[in-house]
Design a protein that fits this description.
Number of strands of chain A: 0
Largest sheet of chain A: none
Distance between the termini of chain A: 89 Å
Oligomer: heterotrimer
Helix content of chain A: 40-55%
Chains: A mainly alpha (357), B mainly alpha (364), C alpha/beta (145)
Shape of chain A: globular
Number of helices of chain A: 12
Chain lengths: 357, 364, 145
């Protein structure tokens, strides 16, 4: 029968581990904005190597044990697969700009609306409740399969999962707060939304999710703020748009990093952007494209009622054009803007054709 | 520190476009509007209460009907009208008994209300130089706690993405758990790197592996993650708070304690639900405990964490005897709480409980 | 009483904004941006660093190239917005920054550098920018003739 090991006085402590720790003498100093992740990127604890060999889940820079259990099998082991230069900054920003859908949205300002407006608002809310957590589930899978040596981008993705959870929640609340209810789902698991699930590479996933998908949703949130009928909706959409803009920023900075460090993947990434733009051209963002339930709802809200649908569509198209312009500028910002100058992308021509009229 | 990539020159403005041919603007197509009127329950008006409009408040009428099995394989929100013909997404966890806890919605809202940011909410300036042995020990403890948090994050995010949408309260709560894990990973790393120290030696990792290898489903992962290891972590936080060397450490461990308490509330609530709604679940948990406790015992044989905690509690190698007594008291508290929790859940542990663990109860 | 626009006016708003902790919650918080403003032929740069609006300076037009984004409207539109905020304690449904940006054909926010990543800071920190201008409700404001 073995007993618990009872420690004897100090002379019998092993203490050999004290000689096997990581780099010593580190003194990170808090800056004006507290002690941030960037502040602790010092010495060997700074940026990771290009390739990780960490299969035990140890913190980056910790002393390694030869007999530690391997827990990894991580799919993402190369920095260029996931890195972005300002991940730690985006994470700290996300932490400090959290909000509560329960208490930071002035729900008491919601008053009864005309039936068609309420239905449109609830249809839109149903759509957002459905699709927002795609952007929660999918990053979650990638977090679990990324080595902790690249914890900075992982932290950003963890913040995104939290943000999307809050979005899923706030739109459910809106749908049920004003005499309405949830309506029909979009079935948006096909197309871009579905292909986010199917991505087998992080950059592939990020281009679809962050650049294309979240960029489009950011515009929808901004439209929501524009057409809000009360302070609650104003706050709800504005706060969601902030979060979404941060997710877009992640995607832009990752793609910029890829542009600068992985030239061998340029053509591959251009193909992902081809695909995203095909979706833009085929879908409701194209003035000539088919309108979905949610874009019809947007048009009703923008116009101010079912009887003002045409006016709403005109406003919607004008805003969509801005969305496309912003997308183009974002892609230019990533370093992949040559596609707009060499004729590869049809976006400028398609949207300018309609704008010129 | 700014977000600006200042040394990168901004992109050049695009070249001027030639004027496209003039075309008439498309007239808006008439709306379809078939979506109007499609709802299972209209007229729902949930009002904010004293604490705002909370997730649990939405469970009225059909929106609150949580079925025992969620058959929809899409992302259809509970209560929405499903669309026919949508390809399934293959969510693996679709039975309520495999994830449910009544407290999840409340814990979700509580997590958001009690959020904290290590960068600014910890008084880092109160960390002053410590004797080398103490600093090395606290850094060692922080390294292992950061590694535990990593296992938490990897486990929770893996399982969360497999849960069906009908149980959104659970998915949302687990989003807060993984976010807590991110904070813990971050804050312990920061503590290790802010006071002239560095990261310690990585942990043995066997319990991490056990958590991440939970093949039996989320309930098994909950048992290992939150009960077997989570209670151990929480007990450590309590003692580290008690024996903290400065306000920064007290703040860190106080916040982590709160976070962990929420995780444990969910875990106990879920396991209770599972035991009450699934035949022989208590026997399965008993068997899992048998396995998990032995893994824990093997990991506890490793001297590193034990010695580091001993030195922290005793405030130096020279006081290791006193530190050792405090360590044994900590272990006794952990095991007492662990056994009491399992007893409350209806999981028998009087037989075949490892002697190595029960010895802590006798020694205290 | 400070004239809008002027460094004095922006400093007064900064004072209110920095003193009110509630602006750091509810979707506010750490903000790092250089906001440019073009108002009635005058140009200003307002700096946000973390939890603080740390500076407001009057600059030459071409100095706005340093801004992450520039907010520009006619003086009449600026005046209407500030007066609306003063009347209601905060911008009403038709006078929030995002509404003004999307509701006007020429928009409100743009930049001289064309980098959408930096222009997107207007969206990322929109609540903070809204809080900043809403803080002007507590500043006695005089307008130019």
């Amino acid at each position: 029968m073995s007993e618990a090991e009872v420690l004897q006085p100090s002379s019998t402590l092993d203490l050999g581990w004290m000689d096997r720790q990581g780099e010593w003498g580190i003194r990170a100093v808090p800056g004006k904005q507290g002690l941030s992740l960037a502040d602790i990127q010092i010495g060997s604890y700074g940026e990771p190597e290009e390739r990780s060999d960490n299969q035990t889940g140890r913190p980056r820079g910790a002393g390694a044990r030869p007999n530690s259990y391997r827990i990894g099998g991580y799919a993402v082991m190369s920095k260029s697969e996931i890195w972005l230069d300002n991940a730690s900054f985006l994470y700290e920003e996300a932490l400090q700009r959290q909000w509560s859908s329960a208490t930071d949205v002035p729900w008491h300002t919601i008053k009864p609306l005309p039936d068609d407006i309420e239905e449109a608002e609830c249809q839109l809310a149903t759509f957002f409740t459905e699709v927002e957590f795609v952007a929660g589930d999918v990053p979650a899978r990638w977090i679990a399969s990324t080595t902790p040596d690249f914890f900075e981008p992982r932290q950003c993705l963890l913040a995104q999962v939290m943000d999307e959870s809050r979005h899923m929640d706030v739109f459910r609340k809106r749908a049920l707060a004003n005499g309405g209810g949830l309506m029909q789902t979009s079935g948006g698991t096909a197309g871009v939304v579905g292909s986010i699930d199917l991505a087998r590479d992080f950059t592939e996933m990020s281009s679809r999710l962050h650049i294309s998908g979240e960029g489009a949703v950011l515009t929808m949130f901004r439209m929501g703020e524009l057409m809000a009928y009360n302070e609650a909706e104003k706050a709800m959409y504005r706060l969601c748009a902030q979060d979404e803009a941060r997710h877009v920023a992640f995607g832009v900075m990752h793609m910029r990093y890829m542009s600068e460090t992985a030239p061998q993947r340029r053509e591959e990434i251009q193909c992902y952007l081809d695909e995203a733009e095909r979706q833009i051209l085929a879908g409701s963002q194209n003035p000539a494209g088919t309108q979905t339930d949610s874009s019809e709802a947007l048009a009703i809200l923008l116009g101010g009622g079912k009887d003002k649908y045409d006016e709403g569509v005109r406003k919607l198209i004008a805003i969509r054009k801005r969305q496309v312009q912003e997308y183009i500028k974002r892609v230019r910002s990533t370093g992949f803007g040559d596609r707009f100058d060499n004729g590869r992308s049809q976006l400028i021509r398609t949207f300018d054709d309609h704008a010129a009229a | 520190m700014t977000d600006k990539t200042d040394d990168k020159s901004p992109p050049q403005p695009p070249p001027p476009q030639t004027a496209p041919p003039q075309t008439a603007p498309p007239q808006p197509a008439p709306p379809n509007l078939k979506w109007m009127g499609k709802t299972h329950q209209w007229g729902t008006r949930v009002k904010p209460g004293k604490h705002g409009l909370r997730l649990g408040d939405l469970n009225v009428g059909i929106y609150g009907e949580v079925p025992p099995v969620w058959t929809d394989q899409t992302r259809a929100p509970r209560g929405a009208v499903s669309r026919r013909g949508v390809p399934p997404l293959g969510y693996a966890i679709r039975d309520k008994v495999d994830l449910w806890a009544d407290s999840a919605a409340d814990m979700y809202e509580e997590a958001i209300q009690r959020r904290w940011a290590p960068a600014v909410d910890v008084p880092w300036s109160t960390v002053k130089p410590l004797p080398d042995d103490v600093e090395r020990s606290i850094c060692q403890v922080c390294t292992e706690l950061s590694q535990y948090a990593n296992a938490d994050v990897e486990s929770v995010t893996y399982w969360q993405s497999q849960m069906a949408y009908g149980y959104h309260e659970i998915k949302q709560f687990l989003a807060t758990v993984s976010f807590d894990g991110a904070r813990h990973m971050e804050v312990f790393r920061k503590r290790a790197l802010c006071n002239g120290g560095g990261l310690g030696l990585e942990g043995p990792g066997e319990v991490n592996r056990m958590i991440l290898e939970s093949r039996g489903g989320w309930t098994e992962a909950v048992l290992y993650l939150f009960i077997v290891r989570g209670l151990f972590t929480q007990t450590m936080y309590r003692y580290l708070h008690r024996y903290a060397h400065n306000d920064a450490e007290r703040t860190i461990f106080a916040h982590c304690l709160e976070d962990k308490a929420r995780h444990l509330t969910y875990a106990i609530d879920h396991l209770r639900y599972a035991v009450n709604h699934q035949d022989d679940q208590n026997l399965i948990l008993q068997q899992l405990c048998f396995i998990g406790e032995r893994v824990l015992v093997r990991e506890l044989k490793d001297v590193v964490l034990r010695e580091a905690l001993t030195i922290v509690f005793g405030n130096g190698i020279s006081e290791a005897e006193e530190g050792g007594r405090i360590f044994r008291r900590m272990m006794s508290d952990y095991i007492t709480r662990y056994l009491a929790t399992l007893k409350w859940l209806g999981v028998e542990r009087r037989t075949l409980f490892p002697e190595e663990l029960s010895a802590y109860l006798k020694a205290s | 009483m400070a004239v809008f626009p002027s460094v004095q006016w922006f400093d007064a708003v900064r004072g209110v904004f920095n003193a009110d902790e509630s602006y750091q919650g509810g979707g506010g918080g750490a903000c790092n941006a250089l906001m440019g403003l073009k108002i009635a032929g005058q140009s200003f740069l307002v700096t946000f660093e973390g939890a603080e609006c740390s500076a407001a300076v009057k600059v030459q037009d071409n100095d706005l190239a340093a801004a992450d984004y520039i907010l520009e409207m006619s003086y009449a539109d600026w005046k209407e917005m500030i007066q609306n905020i003063a009347t209601n304690g905060h911008a009403d449904l038709h006078h929030t920054l995002n509404t003004l940006d999307l509701g006007r054909p020429e928009g409100l926010s743009h930049s001289m550098h064309g980098d959408q990543y930096r222009e997107d800071l207007f969206f990322r920190y929109n609540q903070t920018m809204q809080y900043f201008f809403d803080a002007s409700a507590r500043v006695a404001t005089e307008f130019m003739e």
